Amino acid sequence: MSQSFFPGVERIRYEGPNSENPLAFRYYDPNRMVLGKRLEEQLRVAVCYWHSFAWPGSDIFGHGTFDRPWFKVSNPLEAAELKLKTAFEFFEKLGSPYFTFHDRDIAPEGATLRESHDNLDRIIEKAQAEMQRTSVKLLWGTANLFSHPRYMGGAATNPDPEVFAYAAGQVRKMLDVTHQLAGANYVLWGGREGYETLLNTDMKREADQLARFLSMVCEYKHKIGFKGLLLIEPKPKEPTKHQYDFDTATVYAFLQRYRLDKEYKVNIEANHAILSGHSFQHEVAYALGNGIFGSLDMNRGDDLLGWDTDQFPNDLQEIALVMHTLLKGGGFSSGGMNFDAKLRRQSSDPNDLFHAHIGGMDTLARGTLIAEQMIQDGKLDRAVEERYAGWRGELGESILGGRVSLAELADQALAKGIDPKPRSGRQEYLENLVNRYL
Ligand code: XUL
Ligand code: CO
After folding, report:
1. 30-377: what fold?
2. Phi, psi (5° rounding) for residue 229?
């Protein structure tokens, strides 16, 4: 077997905030207890295969910039094996408990669907051995239903039912593989499920097709006894102009309309939230509030760019607020934090992969410790509770309890001469309070 791709790197250790070692964690101490769970279990960090091992560093203007040995191996299955070894060397040295992958990240597409399945089987057997050797687990599997030209007009929403059938072939296989690898969840991101122009698109029909696909997927999940969550990943645009899974609220309405809301939850991605005109925290709060929270794709965008830049998270305030919302909502069940994040094209040294993930994990850890303080302190929660205190009184309870009609309430307002006084929302006071924890 090949040699190490990261020869100078040992297992990354927690060394505390004062460490000068760039290849150490300053905040990510997996064994530290946070609100009754080990930090590692609160965060459930995953490294993604596609950005870190399959992407060559190309963009629409230029070729790959990353000199990875598996890109130079001409036999695609041998290349996949080398990539697999390197990926597990990385997961093990980083100490990430989970990873994620698409079918086509881990094994090459063959000339036919059957050949692709066979390629996948060969590599998955080796992946299973690596998982046993390292104890690294699968957070979720997924199928790539967007790269190949056959999917240019969508997968489930394609005008051609044969494309739908091909997608069914890929998803059944990846559900089987995810189940075989004891994956904790299964993700569906509708990369090409959207449209460019209504001149050639029947939106209503495409929604029906997508719903049919999703119900076939959940029927199959139950048939094979896969216990993980099925997760839809919202994104408002890119690659299509109008993506059907625009944001969490849109996905929730769609799921309810087709009676799929008990079967699917969401995988929320930070930069997708921003692209949809929301904050990451808003999306997480919405999903928790409606019982459809599943998992997170961690990354960040760039304020000056309007696309999915997939940078590693480093905004401490954003992460602290998201973790505050998430931990108050009970934290993860089977979900986790998948780094759907990539290096910049100029970060071409192998060790840049470590710096990126170490920085990301430290930001998540530090944000979580800040969120723990906010929760234990209780000041932020008390401010919100006080703001709604009236609803716990006689008037509020009679309204929400359905004990008064509109007419009765209107009469009461007249009879009692109700004259509500505006009260401050104290936003700046609360913002200052948050800054004190950072
Ligand atoms: C694309 C994206 C995907 C999904 C998995 O923006 O986020 O990588 O996470 O298909
Ligand atoms: Co994603």
Report:
1. TIM Barrel (3.20.20)
2. -80, 150
Query: Rounded distance, CA 171 to CA 191, Å?
Result: 14
Check: CB of residue 116 under 8 Å from CB of residue 129. Answer: no
pLDDT in tens, 225-236: 999 999 999 999
Alpha-carbon span 438 to 434, nearest angstrom: 7
Residues in the chain: 438
The response to whether residue 105 sits with its C-beta less than 6 Å from ligand 1 reads no
- What mean pLDDT is reported for the chain? 98
Cα separation values, 178 from 52, 206, 347, 382, Å: 20, 27, 31, 43
Nearest to 34 by CA among 436, 360, 376, 315: 376
Instruction: Parse the chain into domains and list their residue ranges.
Output: 30-377, 382-437
For residue 361, count CB atoms less than 10 angstroms from its CB and return exposed for 0-12, middle for 13-18, buried for 19 or more: buried
* Model pLDDT, residue 3: 83
Peptide bond between residue 239 and the one before it cis (omega within 30 degrees of 0)? yes
| 340 CA → ligand 1 middle, Å | 7
Task: Look up residue 53 and give its two tokens.
Answer: 């091992």
State pLDDT tens for residues 384-405: 999 999 999 999 999 999 999 9
- CB 31 within 8 Å of CB 40: yes
CB-based contact 192:151 (threshold 8 Å): yes
CB 153 within 8 A of CB 163: yes
**Tokens representing 417?**
């001469």
* Res 1: pLDDT: 47
| H or E, element range at 358 | helix 352-377
Residues labelled as active-site residues: 102, 105
Distance 269 CA to ligand 2 centre (A): 6
Question: Which residues make Cβ contacts (< 8 Å) with residue 267, sequence separation at least 6?
Answer: 140, 185, 187, 189, 231, 232, 233, 294, 295, 296, 297, 335, 338
Q: Is the CB of 372 under 6 A from ligand 1?
A: no
Give the distance between the most distant pair of CA atoms in the chain. Answer: 86
Q: Are 270 and 280 in contact (CB under 8 A)?
A: yes
R_g over Cα of the chain:
24
For ligand 1, whether the C-beta of 52 sits within 6 Å is no
Question: What confidence score (pLDDT) does residue 169 get?
Answer: 98
